[in-house]
Automatic annotation (TrEMBL):
InterPro entries: Homeodomain-like_sf, HTH-type_TetR-like_transc_reg, HTH_TetR, Rv0078-like_C. It comes from the Bacteria. Residues 11-71 form the HTH tetR-type domain. GO terms for molecular function: DNA-binding transcription factor activity; transcription cis-regulatory region binding. This is TetR family transcriptional regulator. It comes from Mesorhizobium tianshanense. The keyword Repeat does not apply. Residues 34-53 bind DNA. The lineage of its organism: Bacteria, Pseudomonadati, Pseudomonadota, Alphaproteobacteria, Hyphomicrobiales.
Length: 214
């Protein structure tokens, strides 16, 4: 039987390390996770970890990248189910905030990630998030659904608000209650982008968000 391709073996080794680290980070947290424990559970050595990821921090980045990709996939499904571009946009933003209730995302992405890797708004994945959100906002502006706001500026503000809301939930003593408050307030903010009858498109007046009723 012939040897397996080196590329395939490398991918398998990386996948084993990421899976073992993801389990450890998600159960005991980054600080308590032992490199020896999760390399042993993957049937590999510390040398393999250092070779592929540099160190424990590099492995955390890989784990977060994997979780982030899964989150993006789930959010695309959410937005695709909506009956309008606007509703899909709102649903996707809301779903992202609500994901902060999930234990793995809470601990790895929203608590340990920022503590170890720094401000999430500076992570490489945020560039793609801003780009995608800007494109959707441009389409919504072109179709006349929202006001003539700069798409990138709005995307950065919305992304920052949703990220802050998610971190607030993840670090809250009562995540469920905090999530409900965050989602309600966030959706009121998004309503301010909509063109309302009788309000000029380029009005300098702020949206009357307080007029939204429960």
């Amino acid at each position: 039987m012939g040897h397996r391709p080196r590329k395939e073996m490398i991918a398998e080794t990386r996948a084993k390390l990421v899976a073992a680290a993801r389990h450890a980070f998600g159960t005991v947290g980054y600080a308590e996770a032992s490199m020896d424990d999760f390399t042993a559970s993957a049937g590999l050595t510390r040398g393999a970890l250092y070779h592929h990821f540099g160190d424990k921090k590099g492995l955390l980045q890989a784990v977060i990248a994997e979780i982030d990709a899964e989150m993006v996939g789930r959010l695309k499904v959410v937005s695709a189910r909506a009956d309008s571009l606007w509703q899909g946009f709102v649903d996707e933003c809301t779903a992202y905030i609500e994901m902060a209730l999930e234990p793995e995302i809470q601990r790895i992405v929203l608590r340990d990630g920022p503590a170890v890797l720094g401000d999430p708004s500076q992570w490489p994945s945020q560039n793609e998030c801003i780009r995608s959100m800007s494109e959707n906002l441009q389409k919504l502006r072109d179709e006349g659904t929202i006001l003539a706001v700069d798409p990138e500026a709005a995307a950065r503000l919305i992304s920052g608000a949703s990220l802050h809301a998610a971190q607030w939930i993840a670090n809250s003593d009562d995540p469920e209650a905090t999530s409900k408050k965050a989602v309600k307030a966030f959706n009121v903010l998004l309503e301010g982008l909509l063109k309302h009858a009788g309000r000029p498109q380029n009005s300098n007046q702020p949206a009357l968000i307080g007029s939204t009723q429960d």
